[in-house]
Amino acid sequence: MKNVLILCTGNSCRSIIAEALINKYLDGINAYSSGVNPSGRINPNAKKVLEENNVWRDNYHSKTLDSLDGIDFDLVVTVCDHAKETCPMFPKAVPTIHIGFEDPDGKEYEAFEVTFNDIKTTLLPRIEAIFSGDVENLLDEEKPMQKNVFKTNEGVKINFTGVVEKQQIVKMVQNCATGACECMSDDTKKKIKNMQVDGKDGDVELKLDGEVSKEEIEKALAKSKVLNK
Question: Is CATH 3.10.20.70 what the domain over 2-140 is classified as, yes or no?
Answer without folding.
Answer: no
